[in-house]
Each structure stands twice: as C-alpha cells, then as structure tokens.
C-alpha cells in the first residue's frame, strides 16, 4: 500500500508528521514517500505542483495531504499560487467525490458558536462534487464585453457547467453513502436561477428513483446556508456542486466549533483518494507546535477505510481519538478550562498511546 | 411621490397591508397604487410580472414589495415561476445595488442560534450586486458537451461575468456606505479560482484608492461563510457579487435569529428602488395573521430614506419599531416568555400608535 505524503505549507508539516506517526504505530505494510507541494514546492521548483510530486501522487494508492498557502504567495500569478496544487491534484487524479463530515464531538460542544442544544450530536456528511462546475469550466478569462450592461468595457467571465454523467456519478455516491446512514439526502442547488442547477436537480431526481429506500429532498443554496445556522441537525447527507459545496462545507464545519477536528476525503472512481484536514495552512501559528493534528489523523483513518481497505485500522484510530478527548487532552484551538493543554506533538503521542 | 405596491404571494398581502397602514399614518403626500406580482399574477394574467405591473413599477419612485412564491408553482417552467418577477424587476429597473442589513436587536438576542455574546450588538451591512454575475450572464442553456469529462453527453451551463464598470459602481456604493459607518469594507470573492473574482478584487482595490479614509480588506467566500459564524461582529460593510451575496446575506440574516425583522433595499443609479423584507413568502403560515410585518415596515422606512428623501419620516418609523419591541410586542417568530404575543395586525397597529 503506497501513500504519497504531501505536508505542504504552514502547519502542514507539523500535523502530517503526527498522522504519519500514528500510521507507523499501526504496523501495517505501508510504504510512505514524501514530496513537496504548495508554496514550498514553488520555492524549490518554481511550481506548486511539480511533475515529480504529481507522478508520486498518481502512482500511490492514496495521498495524505497537509495544507497549502501563505500570504507571501498572494502576489503571484494565479497559476503559481499554492492552492493551484490542490486543484491540480483533484483534476489530474479525477477526485470528483469529496466527503466532508461536519461532526460535533460531545466533549467539544462548548467550542461552537451555536447554542449547545442546536449543535450537540451534530453529524452531517457533506458530499461535494469536486472536479466540475465553475472551478474548471471553460471558457473563462477576460475580454471586451459585446453585450450586457456595458458593451465595450473590459469584463471577466467563467463558465459554470455540469454534464449529466458528472451529476449521475456524484448522485450515486450520495445515495450510497445515505444507505449506510439515515437514508436521507438533501440535494442543494439554485435551480430557480441557474440552468446548471436545473439539470442537477433533474438528474438527482432520476438517480434517486434507483434508491427508493432513500428519501431525497431539494433545497436552494441560500436557504441551505440559512438552515445550517437555524437547525443544522435536520441535515444528514447533503450533496451539492463544487462551488456551493465549497461555501456550505466550510460554513458547516465552522458551526461545529472545532474545525481542527474535521477530516476530509476526495475520491476518484477507483477509490484512489486524497485525504486532508478541512482546515487550512494557518501560517500565523505555523512552527509553534500548537496546531491540532486530529483532523489530519482522522483523515488518515478515512484513508485506511476508503482507499486502503483497512476498516479495522480506521476504527482503531477513530477510537483512539475519542479516547484522548475523553482523557481531556486539548490543543489550543479546542482548549477550555479544566482540560489538559497539549502541543501538536503531545496530541499525536497521546493518540499513539491510546491505539 | 408615487409608490407601486406589490404584495405578491403568501404572507405578502398581510405584511404589506401593515406597512401601507404605517405609511398612511405619516400623512405624507404619497400616491400608492397596488398591482399583482408573482404567483397570483401568474394565476390572473399568465405571467408572474405582467406588463401593467412592470409599467407601474417603472413609473413609480419606489416599489414596496411583499414576497413571492409558493410550492404550487414549483412545477411550472422556470420563466413562469413567481421568483422570475423579482428578477425581472431588478433587471428592468436596473436595481444593481442591494442593501441588506443584518442587525441583531437588543431585545431579540435570545432568538439567535448563536451564543448571545457573539451576536449582541451585531450590525452588518451587506451590499450585494444585483443585476450582474451568473444570474443574468449569457450564454446559458443546455447542449451536448464537446469537451470536459464527458464529451458527447448532455450538459447545462451558465456564464458568470462582471464588467469593470459594473464592479466600479457597486464599489462606490460600498465605500460611500462605509463612510457613513465605521469606514471599513470587506470585499468577498473567490479570486483563487475565478477570473471574474480576480477582476472584482482588482477593481475594488482601484476604486478603494479614491477612498483613502476607508479601510478595505478582501476575504474568500468560503472563509466569509465561516467568519460570519465564528465572529460576525468583525464585519461592518461586506460587499460582494450577486451569487455569493445571495448566500452570504441569507446566512447573515439567519444568524441574527430574527429574519422577520430585516428589511432590504435595491437601488438603481437614479435612486429609484425596490423595498422588500429579507424573508420569503412563507406559504405555510399565509392567511393566519401571524406573520411578522416589521421587516416590511422597516423596508418602508428605507424607502422613505433612499428613494423619497424623507429621512425624518424614516427615522420616525425606525424609532416606532424600537418602541414596540421595548413595549414587549412580539409576533410568533420572535415570541419568548414574558413578552406579549401580537398578530400581524396588532403589530402594525402598535407601530402606528408608537409613531
Ligand atoms: C484552496 C481552494 C482552491 C479550495 C477550493 O476552493 O476548493 C479550498 O477552499 C477547499 O475547499 O478545498
Ligand atoms: C427568489 C430568488 C431569485 C432571489 C435571488 O436569488 O436573488 C432571492 O433568493 C433573493 O435573495 O432575493
């Protein structure tokens, strides 16, 4: 089982080191190889996703990814900015199915912005399409407008698009995931305005007919953004396109109050996957040894489950994480009075011990 | 001063009646004419925005709008659905500047999903561009894909676009609004992915140089969706495009917990405007006389201020609304123990009395 380890920028190195430590403690035949990605790769090789890194990722069964990005690259042309690495990996590996759980851990209810009764027990699975939509749609660019409000003026444009099979395959992913949970799918779109959303909704309905045991409902994206705040626990599996999924999954993860705990998986049709924490590279706390490694450790668990077929090992990690929370260990982001403050490394060590 | 009164569907009739009552109580020379819009207009004339209604709106100084929409029109072709009326009015009247305050009223802090300390005193002004972006961008439709993941498959597509002058004018609106407040503007985009957003950001920076007294910062839309949950009070004026504004303004208004209190204004370059509550037509409670009319009454106040140049009258209404809240009147949506439950009509009467 080959794993490409791409720590990236900011806290990436620190949190990935702990996840690797946990993986090593499992004594499985895992072959891990590390490569540069993001800003550090740009610094070293002039590109955020160097050829060698992409090759390593493609040949691996799974990619364990830290985080990319730093203010200092903001001035670069877009194609050289760190986040292009993650877009490039998604595109080149065909990682169309993004799983982002928004879970509120019992012990961390207090960390949420929301009142405890609204958030306790929250367990949403957001499934975001990840290789289509306005993220990758062509044509896009700048030109002189020939119509619209100001013909003759400079304009910029992008293309939102989804084809029927692209929607079908993510729909199947959502319905199948729902079968393993509470058998409810909420599909989010903006069909009252967008052609793309109307096709999205039509195809969801069609595919839904193959899953008569799963209840499907539809919600407009603006309403979904509201309902997540108002009554997040009403959601179970939420499936949506790349752009809306970007916004809603971040909103949902912040609702839990402990985004430092939330893993993610991005899969292609052969279950090759990229696993990364839901949070970013946090350059402001990089190098201080205080970042929370649990989202990355839990991402490693998802990797064992989805790409490496090691369900037992995944469960072991997840149980260990629960245990360290019960034991009271907390990194700075989730610290509260009466708990034990742990550094990044101490948290990783505690998980290994709890295995 | 001519006002087109368009109550629309669902609770629209009930809430607009109360706002009209309040306007009448001001004894100003207001000429009000009512017309059908939305589903009721479709039922009567086969179109959600009949010619006569559009003409009335165009010739008025301002439009007082209730709400449109009902499940029973969901099956219609998109062009006949109620919400097309609001899109048609925005487009035909050129209402490019949408003002959506997200305010948390002192007495209603408890109604929010958020913890009181995060939300008390919240006062954000979201300025959303309203006639451009993917809402109106051509081309759009369905076709057979010639490239992408599945060439040959049916696909749907939409065009996101903004021209430089479209961004400039909304930027000026935002900076000028900020001058009257705390002199801070947060511009929200997705420049790490979208060409349109990159131009948006570039133009915001350029226009910002004409307002050296206003502080400008930029935030990615996914991060904005998170920060609104995490620390909403950090925002003051938030300016963004039509699509992101749709999502973020709804998220922000739900954060306050009292979306039934929040007005909105949509203006064109001659200060002609459409004024409507931030909430929808709520068909489930229509006809019961329990809807909250305050958002519509406060929208009427915005109308007096922005389109009719009657600042004193606007302030009178706003003070009256504060007063009825202090007096303890509450419609069902904001009711809590120890307050006085009021029907839609009783709430309107209370405001009139408090004038
Ligand atoms: C870094 C950025 C391009 C990316 C996205 O928008 O998809 C990120 O926000 C995410 O959600 O993984
Ligand atoms: C009804 C719909 C078309 C509209 C929009 O998306 O703009 C609504 O959600 C709004 O925000 O006013």
UniProtKB/TrEMBL annotation, chains A, B:
Record protein name field: 3-isopropylmalate dehydrogenase
One term of GO molecular function: NAD binding
Biological or metabolic pathway of the protein: Amino-acid biosynthesis; L-leucine biosynthesis; L-leucine from 3-methyl-2-oxobutanoate: step 3/4
UniProt: NAD(+) binding residues: 280-292
Cellular-component GO terms for this entry: cytosol
Quaternary structure and interacting proteins, as annotated: Homodimer.
Known function: Catalyzes the oxidation of 3-carboxy-2-hydroxy-4-methylpentanoate (3-isopropylmalate) to 3-carboxy-4-methyl-2-oxopentanoate. The product decarboxylates to 4-methyl-2 oxopentanoate.
InterPro entries according to UniProt: IsoCit/isopropylmalate_DH_CS (IPR019818), IsoPropMal-DH-like_dom (IPR024084), Isopropylmalate_DH (IPR004429)
Annotated positions binding Mg(2+): 222, 246, 250
Isopropylmalate dehydrogenase-like domain span: 2-351
Highest taxon above the source species: Bacteria
């Amino acid at each position: 089982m080959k794993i490409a380890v791409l720590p990236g920028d900011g806290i990436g190195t620190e949190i990935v080191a702990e996840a690797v430590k946990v993986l090593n403690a499992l004594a499985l035949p895992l072959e891990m190889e590390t490569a540069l990605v993001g800003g550090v790769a740009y610094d070293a090789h002039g590109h955020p996703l160097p050829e060698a890194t992409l090759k390593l990722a493609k040949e691996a069964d799974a990619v364990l990814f830290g985080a990319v990005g730093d203010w200092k690259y903001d001035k670069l042309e877009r194609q050289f900015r760190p986040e292009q690495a993650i877009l490039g990996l998604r595109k080149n590996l065909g990682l169309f199915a993004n799983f982002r759980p928004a879970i509120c851990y019992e012990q961390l209810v207090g960390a949420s912005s929301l009142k405890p009764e609204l958030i306790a027990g929250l367990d949403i699975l957001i499934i975001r399409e990840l290789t289509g939509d306005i993220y990758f749609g062509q044509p896009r660019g700048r030109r002189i407008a020939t119509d619209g409000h100001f013909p003759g003026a400079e304009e910029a444009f992008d293309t939102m698009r989804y084809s029927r099979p692209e929607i079908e395959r993510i729909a199947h992913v959502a319905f199948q995931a729902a079968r393993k949970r509470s058998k409810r799918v909420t599909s989010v779109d903006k069909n009252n305005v967008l052609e793309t959303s109307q096709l999205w909704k039509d195809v969801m309905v069609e595919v839904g007919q193959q899953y008569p045991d799963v209840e499907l409902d539809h919600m407009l994206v603006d309403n979904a953004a509201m309902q997540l705040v108002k009554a997040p626990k009403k959601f179970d599996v939420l499936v949506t396109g790349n752009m809306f999924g970007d916004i809603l999954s971040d909103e949902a993860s912040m609702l839990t109050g402990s985004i430092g705990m939330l893993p993610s998986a991005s899969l292609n049709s052969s279950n090759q996957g990229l696993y990364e924490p839901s949070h970013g590279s946090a350059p402001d706390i990089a190098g201080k040894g205080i970042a929370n490694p649990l989202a990355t450790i839990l991402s490693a668990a998802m990797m064992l489950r989805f790409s490496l077929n090691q369900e037992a090992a995944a469960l072991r990690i997840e149980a260990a994480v629960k245990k360290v929370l019960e034991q009271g260990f907390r990194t700075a982001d989730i610290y509260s009075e009466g708990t034990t403050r742990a550094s990044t490394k101490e948290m990783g060590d505690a998980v290994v011990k709890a295995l």
